[in-house]
From TrEMBL, chains A, B:
Protein name, UniProt field: Copper transport protein ATOX1
HMA domain residues: 9-71
Organism: Capra hircus
GO cellular component: cytosol
Source superkingdom: Eukaryota
The keyword Membrane is assigned to this record: no
Quaternary data: Homodimer. Interacts with ATP7B. Interacts with ATP7A. Interacts (via dimer form) with SLC31A1 (via C-terminal domain); this interaction improves ATOX1 stability and controls intracellular Cu(I) levels.
Functional summary from the UniProt entry: Binds and deliver cytosolic copper to the copper ATPase proteins. May be important in cellular antioxidant defense.
GO biological process: one example: copper ion transport
Lineage: Eukaryota, Metazoa, Chordata, Craniata, Vertebrata
Protein family per UniProt: Belongs to the ATX1 family.
The keyword Methyltransferase appears for this protein: no
Keywords in alphabetical order: Chaperone, Copper, Copper transport, Ion transport, Metal-binding, Transport
Family annotation (InterPro entries): Copper_transport_ATOX1-like, Heavy-metal-associated_CS, HMA_dom, HMA_dom_sf
UniProt-listed Pfam families: HMA (PF00403)
Amino acid sequence: MPGEFHGQRSLHEFSVDMTCEACANTVTHILNKLGGVQFDIDLPNKKVCITSEHSVDTLLETLGKTGKAVSYLGPK
Amino acid sequence: MPGEFHGQRSLHEFSVDMTCEACANTVTHILNKLGGVQFDIDLPNKKVCITSEHSVDTLLETLGKTGKAVSYLGPK
């Protein structure tokens, strides 16, 4: 059942200012390096949905490594 | 005089697979975070010229954090 997770896993939605496929690849690369995340990237809408046990702060800091404008939209 | 530096500063040319302005911004962000570098980004030609005391390996590793295809073209 989507959205049902054990432990502290939560689904968070972020806005990330991606403009091309390579931008999305950068986000993928940086999130995979962090580890412990499952995510979907919605390039046209510049959104990234992340399921993980990491805090929102950690996720924001990680996404910020792309140098792109990032903001937290909220839980989903 | 361009190309004349004291110490171990060298000018290196890298190929970085950037496709848009935001890709170039990511490269700028990551190089600035490394520090100790001066650089020019040539987006149309997907090239980055870096003057620094860092080793080529360090620069390759840093550029690799973008998740983009990166290769060393040589000294300039």
